[in-house]
Amino acid sequence: MANLSTKWIKVSEPARHVLLVELARSPVNAVCTEFWQEYGKLFESISAEVPDTRAVVLSSVFSEIFTAGSDLLEAGEIVKATANSDPNTTDAARIALDFYKQIIPFQKAITAPERCLFPVIAAVHGMVVGLGVDMISACDIRYAASNAKFTIKEIDIGLAADMGSLAYLPKITGNMSFIREMAYTAQWFPASKAEQIGLVSKVVEGGRDEVVAAALEVAQLIATKSLIAVTGTKRLLSHARDHSVSENLEYTTLWNSAMLQTKDMMETLESTKAKRPGKFLPLNFKFGKSKL
């Protein structure tokens, strides 16, 4: 496997076709610019570097925390520099455009898991603060340890959350009243409440080790399925979230008009009949160079 680990992100392959991505910036996984750039680049490059990746589990190396959110020291320096800028040589509209240029790549990095061809499973534990909620919202499946607790914290530092929480959470949970309450107040809510509103699909009794094990178990199950079927399902579900039923059915028809030609369907039928694991090609292979 290619060495995908970086200064603050640890990548391993605990099972065939399954990667474990762990946030590892001491002491609390505060996300600075270099960190989120590494994060986005990693998820954008996994398919190319490890073309037979079929599922990824996202977690943290620290037992008491998933992430403390944005690095406030760095953010403070940016705000201070803006506030102290010379009014004779700056213009509010142009400053706004500069901020726009900074926010867009940040958003793209945090939402990178949604654009992956494979499912990304968040396995969270301990504190999940601010940007951490944005990060897991862009994942396909979310599991939480029973010791996990969450907060949409941005309002306490004087801004609205802008990396995905406010876009994803109303659609994920279907509970606009609760999301508004949490976003307006920055109150903490436990894993049990996260499961009740649908933010996570499972609460695993215990902490980091237990929730990562549960997430890896479902990742390994997904890895036995046809990659064409899984990536198509991911794409169609994401489309359904943002479009009407009729629009999604039309998109599904167009998508499957191509995907029904896959050899994976015959392989699935034959492997099921023979009671053996299916043998599927990587999704993004170069013609003539791939092996089963």
From TrEMBL:
Q: Keyword annotations for this protein?
A: Fatty acid metabolism, Isomerase, Lipid metabolism
The UniProt entry, under PANTHER family, shows:
DELTA(3,5)-DELTA(2,4)-DIENOYL-COA ISOMERASE, MITOCHONDRIAL, ENOYL-COA HYDRATASE
Keyword Isomerase listed? The answer is: yes
The text of the family note is:
Belongs to the enoyl-CoA hydratase/isomerase family.
Please identify the protein, giving its name as recorded. Delta2-dienoyl-CoA-isomerase
Single GO biological process annotation from the record: fatty acid metabolic process
Write out the transmembrane intervals. Answer: none
Which pathway is it part of?
Lipid metabolism; fatty acid beta-oxidation
* Pfam families according to UniProt: ECH_1
Output a single Gene Ontology CC term carried by this record.
Answer: mitochondrion
Which GO MF terms does the UniProt record name? delta(3,5)-delta(2,4)-dienoyl-CoA isomerase activity
